[in-house]
């Protein structure tokens, strides 16, 4: 109750706490007297009229009005309403994100850390629907969900267009209030404006009545349905592949699991339409295929499973898709054939299986018996998945991963068919000790060792890599063959990354105007990104674990950028690098100077009088050719010139207008024929450098800010929605590019924006999601409004 407590002094606070404790105890016993003792019930049942009512009438309301804030790790009070199991689990009064914790906390992952609601009750979770006597009155009185809807109905949003900070707290690190139903009356008096949806328009009368009818009838939820015959056969086929008993197969299965545990696996041969697919997670289970899955709940995938006999299983995920965590990955006959060619056809022996000791937090030790080329191809063919993984991965509030990257950059990859990729002939095995990662320290990391142990190890690796490349480039030139061209068909060959404060998005293609930086990623770098930020990263880890992860990511970003600089003329490399790292700290500058950019020879790339970096961007685009996805590129979008030209004008705007925009704006354009198109207007914040943990504002360069406009939706946490007609679009662009001060942005939102307080907010949101699923059905999910502006 932080907002309320801030207004009272310590003596009053102490007295109030005593009073509330006494009142809570009284109310709890009074609830028991009237409605019986609380007890979990088997709420998930097979289909019946009440369950059908939930699925047909209630669930669409919860999805479109509640899941948009209650789905990810940072869902207020850990209340996840995106599944029947999450609704039944309820909420708890402590957050996942407690950045200052000195010891790791216990994980609370739905479907993983407890098998049922009884287990969650023992963990301190309490219900959002009634668990006392099953009678209509008791069900309504005992339902927190019904009470927060009633509170909203009694106290709708005020008439102000911008909500008062005295009554509404939208800060990212706000302290959420998580009342129990027994103390809800005190909560309602302290926070009368805190009904749900919080800080947004309330549900209409019919929607509220529908949910309350479901609550009054007992809030029954659907049990997970059996899989179709086709899906069951597909699951059995892949589980058979993953549970073969020879060493070669078992090592591959571990590699598959540790690299795809985040994936939403689907069978497109069985369910070809994206809007009608079932998704699965690969898990480790104590039980073999054919039996019910008993998940082994380790903190991270590379932890010891706690038993010598375990099985890889595909666990059905009965959840609504949310954009932030949706990482689709297809399993089909083509994928199986490809895996066979990579991991089973090559002639190599697996004499013994690796263990789970500390050294096995290093993938170059664990999987050294699998040919490095096979490992690289496995990652490279779906590179978008792995780059997106460190953004969409085990976190929903991603400062650790994304405040160490620029706001807009392009990603390319080293060609696996050139020996210049330093991954062959035992090189990685020789360098395994230098490729250690801070995840080996575990979730309760000790003293920070960034500038001691890991910086020295990274420098040793970089020096050895440079020496190896020098040997290679005495015989063959540095040329465009170093860049993977996706075999002219694979759109993973070129990616664009957009950062939005503590979130980011990755899309296939070379999107937007040329950025400040680019990465060229080789196998050792791609593997370490995956292990550092997904496999070994524990969102429940302590402060030092998370800081070590953040600090090591500096090295990986630098490495990718230096790889790219290799393709530039020697005389240009240092100047470009120094511009990227203007006014960096003395320690980092010294670290950067340890990399000699002149050791590798001049590239055999003709630059002439062109700006080398811009020319290199064009050379890479020409090399990749048809494999460069055009899906999000505004310039190639199939839209009318009356729409494209104003938006291109916005994209070519720099400085003040870009700095005034929120990071992620969604633009919904209604065309003359009534059809709607989605665009994203992304403000790219410029920095002197992005190496500091705490001084981002001091490193900002607003005059260098840029804008990227994409055809289609990019980003999971929109800050604002603009809704305009095709006829208004030119005026919208004029107003945007003319902005010079805060009041100009306020006027832009006044004219075209959809604020939290807009009476049509939910209608616009529905239109937006409908169009998102039509325009981008393969990746679409519910957006998250936890970062939506109040300005």
Structural description of this entry:
It comes from Halioxenophilus aromaticivorans. Keywords: Isomerase, Signal. Residues 1-24 form the signal peptide. It holds the Pfam family CTI. The protein is α/β, with parallel strands linked by helices and 791 residues long. The protein folds into 4 domains: 2-221, no CATH class; 226-356, no CATH class; 395-629, no CATH class; 634-775, no CATH class. 39% of the residues lie in helices and 9% in strands. The two termini are 25 Å apart.
Topology, element by element:
Blueprint: H1 2-5, H2 10-35, E1 44-45, H3 49-65, H4 84-89, H5 117-122, H6 136-141, H7 144-154, H8 184-190, H9 205-216, E2 221-222, H10 229-242, H11 247-260, E3 264-266, E4 280-285, E5 311-316, E6 328-330, H12 333-344, H13 363-366, H14 372-380, H15 383-392, H16 399-402, E7 408-413, H17 427-430, H18 450-473, E8 495-500, E9 503-508, E10 517-521, H19 523-535, H20 543-565, H21 570-580, H22 586-593, H23 612-624, H24 641-651, H25 656-660, E11 664-670, E12 676-684, E13 706-711, E14 720-725, H26 729-737, H27 742-752, E15 753-754, H28 761-775
Parallel strand pairs: 1-2, 3-6, 7-10, 11-14
Antiparallel strand pairs: 4-5, 7-8, 8-9, 11-12, 12-13, 14-15
Mean pLDDT: 90
Please report the total strand number as a whole number: 15
Shape, please?
globular
Main sheet specs: 5 strands, mixed
InterPro entries: Fatty_acid_cis-trans_isomerase
Protein name: Fatty acid cis/trans isomerase
GO molecular function: isomerase activity
Signal peptide: 1-24
